[in-house]
Amino acid sequence: MEKNLIPISITVNGRRVELEVQPQHTLLKVLQNQLDLIGSKECCGEGECGACTILANGRAINSCLVLAVEADGWEIVTIEGLAEDERLDPLQEAFLKAGAVQCGYCIPGMVMSAKYLLMKNPHPSEDEVRQGLAGNLCRCAGYNRIIAAVQLAASEKEAA
Amino acid sequence: MSASAENQGMAQWVGMSPERVGGRERVTGAQRYTGDIRLPGALHVKLAHLNCGHARILNVDASQALRLKGVVAVLTADDLPKPMPRFGPVYNDRPVIADDEVKYFGEPVAAVAAEDEDTALEAVKLLRIEYEELPGVYTIDEALRPGAPLVQHPSIRAADDPFRQSNILNEWCFGWGDVDQAQADMVIENVYRFPLVTHFPIENLAYQAAPEKDGVSVWSSIQHPYVLQRAIVTALNLPASKVRIIAPDPGGGFGGKGYPKYEPLLAFLALKTGRPVRLALTLEETFQAIRRAASQIRLRSGFTADGRLVFQDIEANYQLGAYADIGSRVVSKGSYVAAGPYHAPNVRIVGRAVLTHTTPSTAFRGFGIPQLSWALESQMDAAARQLGLDRLEIRLRNIPAKGETVIPGDKPVDGDWRMLLQRAANAIGWGQPLGKNHGRGLAIGMKNSASASASFAIARLLQDGSLLILSSTSDMGQGARTVFSQLAADELGIPLDRISIVMGDTALAPFDASTSASRSSVFMGNAIISACRQIKTQLRQMAAEAYDMAEDCIRLQEGKVICGERAVAYDRLIRDYYGAVRGEVIAVGTARGKYLPNHPLGGQAAFWEVAAVGCEVEVDEETGEITIHKLVTVTDIGKALNPRQAEAQDEGAAIMGLGHTLMEHLILDEAGRIQNLGALDYRIPTIKDIPLEMETILQENGDGPGPYGSKGAGESGILAVSPAVGSAIREAIGVTIHDLPLTPEKVWLALQEKRAGENSFARPLTDPKSYVE
Ligand code: FES
Ligand code: FES
Questions:
Q1: Which end of chain A, N or C, is more open, meaning fewer C-beta atoms within 10 Å of its C-beta?
Q2: Per the CB < 8 Å rule, is B25 touching A51?
Q3: Res. B759 pLDDT band, cuts 50 70 90
Q4: Per residue in A95-153, pLDDT tens?
Q5: Into which CATH architecture does domain A6-81 fall?
Q6: Predicted local confidence at residue B9, as pLDDT
Q7: A97 in reach of chain B (CB within 8 A)
C-alpha cells in the first residue's frame, strides 16, 4: 500500500542509511523488512515481551513501540551489530557458555537488554539482573542460566 | 530397540555439554525462523474472524475488499471443494476454513492475500460478513448439559458412535481390580480443576506456502513435519511425493506447534493465486489458534488406616475445543495413567474428551498429566492429613519398586522412583523447622512416554570423511542437533565440527513420527546410532575388499579404520575402495515402538517419564502472594547425554509449571471470547517470578531404552509442580485450594474464609468414613 513515504536517515550498527518509510510502520518492521535485519524479533508487538529490544541512542528500547519516522536521526544498534568481524561480544559468548540459549527466539532481545544493563551497571547483583531483564520474556528457560550468563559476562569483563 | 552404545565407557562426547549446535546463529540474530524466510513475490495473508465463539455464517461479501488496490485474492469456504476438505491427526474433522459455522472465537472465516501486509489488513476490514450468533458451550458443564448445542455435527461422526448426539468426542475407560468391592478404612473425595492455558512460545505461529510444478511446498514452524505432510495430502488430495514440508527450527513449541492448523488454507491460497503466500499470526491470533485442555477431575480414593491405597475411582473430564486435534489422545494417554506412579490394587478410570466452542486444545508439555497429577497428588496430601501421616511417608508406602507392576499389562516400573522422592525431600530439608508462613511441598508425576511410533535417520559418510545426518526431529530449543552430533561423534570418532545434522525438510530427511512425548533422544537417538553402526560395518567390509584382508582383522578406532598395522582415514578408504572419482557410505537407521493393536494405547510405553518436585514457599498473609524460596526437580533420566541441556529442559519445564500453578488462565466471556488476549493481560513467569533458588537433579541409573541407558526427559519437570506448591501453601498457612491457578487473590480469599472459621472449600460429611475437604 503506497502512502506518503517519508525519508529518514538513521545509523544502524555504525552504518548510515537513508530510507523511505511508511508513516504507520514501526521501527521493528523497517529493520526486518527494509534492512533485512531479522535478528530483532516480534512476539507481542505491544512492549511486553522484549523480543524486539534494540539500543537507540545508547538506551534499550522496544522497537515495536516506535514508529520508524520517530527514529529519524537516531543511532541504533541491533543484535547484528554486537559481534565485531566474527568476534562475538562477551555477552554473546557468555550466553553460549552458560547454556542460556534454547530455542533462541527471545535471545536477541535478552542480549540487548543485558547489554544495556551492563553499560549502566558493569557489575550487577543477581537482583539487579532480575530487575534489568524483567521486561524480557523467555518461555524455554528457567531464566537462571540467563542470570548466570550476564554475571559471567560481567566478571569476564573485569578479568580482561 | 537397541540399547546402550557398544563403545559405552569410551564416550568422548556423550555425557558432556558441548556448545549448543546453532547457538552462534541464535546469539547473533542470524537464525532464520519460519517468518524470517523471504520468498520472492510472496503475498501477505490476513485472516478474518468474528467477534464471538459460535455463529452461523450467512454471507461473506468480498467485493469491496477485492476492489482495494493490491488485493489479489479472498478465500472463503465457497472457493474450496465440496464437501469441505477436513483434516486432523486423529479425526479428519477440522475444515480448511470455517464451513457454514464458526465454532470458536478466532476461527478464520475468510483469508485475504494481498501484495503487502497493510493492504491485507485493510481488506479484512472491508469484508462484509453477515452472521447470526448462536448459543455456544464454553465450559465442560455447559457442554455436558442435556440438550446443549452440539459442537460437532453428527454427520461427520461414525454412524455407530454412541456419543454422536452429544459433545463427548470419546470416553475412555480403564481399570483393574474391583473398586466397588474394595474395602477401605478411609475414603476421600474431591474435585480438582485445571484452567485453560496457552503455550505462548515467543515465536508466534507462522506459515508460508508456494505452488510447485505439480504440487506444493509448505513452510511451517511445526514440530512434526510428517504429520503436517499427511494433513496436506488429505486436504489437497495430492500424493505425498508432491508435498514438500519445510520446517525451520521452531522458536519454542511445547506441543503447540505439533499439529497442522492453517497450513492447508495457505496451501490452497498458494495454488489459487499461483504465488507464494505468507501468514504470520500475531500473539493474540496465536492464543486463539491453540491451547491446553482444561480439566475437571473427580477423585474418590480409598486407603487403609496405615495409608495404603485400596482404590482409586477417577472421573477426568477434559475440555477440548471445537475440533479434536490431538485432544482425544491427550485424554486417552493421560487417563490411562491416571492412578499415577502408585500401586493401587483397584482402579476405575473414566476419561472424557469434551468438545466446546472454544479454541482447539492440543498437546502441551506433559500431555494430560499435569492436570491429573494436580488432582492425584493433592489427594495424597489430603489422605496424609486425614490419616495423620507424613506426606513423604504416605507416598513411599504406595510407590512400587523397580520391576513391579504399575499398570497391569504394561511396562513394569523401570526406575527407582522412591529415590526420586527421597532426593527431592532431602534437597528441601524435609522435616526441618520452618519459618513463619513457610511451608514445604513434595510431589511426584508420572507420564507414559511415546509408545507405537517410528523414527528413521540417514547417515551419510561423505567422500572427505565428514558426516551428514538426516533426521526429521525438530530442534525447537531442546538441543536435538547437539545431542545427535554427540552420539554420532562417539560412534564414528568424527569431530563434532565435521558433523552436520539436516532437519526440517521432507524432501531430504526421512520419516519421523513426531518431536513430542520426550521421545527424540530415545527413538531418533537409537536410529542414529543404528545408522552409524551400519556405516561401521560397511567400512569394515570395504576395507576387507580394498586391502584384501579378513574382515575380523579390521576394527574402527578414533575415526580410523585399523587394518593390522595400518590406520586408514575414512576418506582414504573411500578413495581406495571407489577409485579416484570416489563415493560415500550411506545407511538408514530405524527405531520403532511396536504397534500392538490390542493395547489400549496401541503399544506399551517405551519408558516411564517420572520426576519428583520439592519446594519451599512463603505466603504473604496480607496479600496472598507466594514466594518460592526453593524449587527442586529430580528427574529419572537414565543417562544425561548432555547434562546441561537436560537440566535446562527441566528448569524451563518447572518454570512453565509455575505458570499454570500461580498465574496463567485464559478467561472467556459469555460469548466465548477470550478476555485476556496477549502478553499484557495473560501473564507468564518472568525472570522476577522464578524461585530464589533452583536445583535440578538428574537421576542417572542407566536403566532406560535409549542410547547409553537414557530415558526421555523434557516434560518431566512440569508434571508435578502444581501439587508440590499447593502442598507447601497448605503447610504454610493451612488452606487448601482445589482450583488452579493459585493466584494471590485466591490464596488471600481462602485465608479470609479460613479465618472466618468457615472454609468454603469444605462441605459437610455425608458418610462418617468419607471426608470431603
Ligand atoms: S515485540 Fe516488542 S516488546 Fe514484544
Ligand atoms: S530461548 Fe526460547 S524463548 Fe527464550
A1: C
A2: no
A3: very low
A4: 999 999 999 999 999 999 999 999 999 999 999 999 999 999 999 999 999 999 999 99
A5: Roll (3.10)
A6: 46
A7: yes
Topology match between the domains A6-81 and A90-159: no
A112 Cα to the center of ligand 1, angstroms: 13
**B20 contacts in chain A (CB < 8 Å):** 96, 99, 101
Q: What's the distance, CA B286 to chain centroid? A: 16
- State in Å: Cα B139 to ligand 1 middle: 32
Within 8 A by CB and 6+ apart from B592, the residues are: B1, B452, B453, B454, B455, B523
Calculate how far, in angstroms, residue B20's C-alpha sits from the geometric centre of ligand 2. 14
pLDDT in tens, B399-415: 999 999 999 999 999 99
- For chain B, domains (ranges, CATH) are 413-423+435-448+605-732+740-770 (3.30.365.10), 453-593 (3.30.365.10)
Q: Hey, how many other C-beta atoms are within 10 angstroms of the C-beta on A34? A: 15
Domain layout of chain A by residue ranges: 6-81, 90-159
Yes or no, beta carbons of A49 and B645 under 8 Å apart? no
- Judged against a pLDDT cut of 80, whether residue B769 lies above it is answered with no
* Per-residue pLDDT tens digits for B713-727: 999 999 999 999 999
pLDDT tens-digit map of B449-471: 988 999 999 999 999 999 999 99
When pLDDT is averaged across residues B23-47 and rounded to a whole number, the result is 98
B268-312 confidence digits (pLDDT tens): 999 999 999 999 999 999 999 999 999 999 999 999 999 999 999
**Total residue length of chain B:** 773
Question: Which one of A91, A105, A146 makes the best mutation probe of the B interface by having the most chain B beta carbons within 10 Å?
Answer: A105
**Cell digits for B360?**
482447539
Q: What is the pLDDT of residue B11?
A: 86
Assigned C-alpha cell, B329: 489422545
Instruction: Tell me how many helices (H) and strands (E) chain A has.
Output: 5, 5
Write the DSSP assignment of B156-170 as a string of letters.
GS-TT-TTTTSSEEE
Give the whole-angstrom CA distance, residue B145 versus residue B166: 9
Q: Which residues of B touch A78 (CB under 8 A)?
A: 29
C-alpha cell at B178: 474391583
- Report the pocket of ligand 1 as residue ranges, CB < 6 Å: A 42-45, 47-52, 62, 64
Complex ipTM value: 0.98
Segment B534-554, tens digit of pLDDT: 999 999 999 999 999 999 999
Q: Please name the residue of chain B whose CA is at the shortest distance from the CA of residue A103.
A: B477
Out of 1.10.150.120, 3.20.20.70, 3.30.70.260, 1.10.287.130, select the CATH number for domain A90-159.
Answer: 1.10.150.120
| Predicted pLDDT of residue A85 | 83
Answer yes or no: is pLDDT of B146 > 90.
yes
Cell 575380523 sits at which residue?
A: B552
- Cβ-based burial of A84 (10 A; exposed 0-12, middle 13-18, buried ≥19): exposed
| DSSP string for residues in B667-689 | -B-TTS-BSS-STTTS----TTS
Of the candidates B626, B623, B622, the residue with the CA atom closest to the CA atom of residue B658: B626
In single-letter form, the type of residue at position B66 comes to: L
**Cα B178 to chain centroid, rounded:** 33
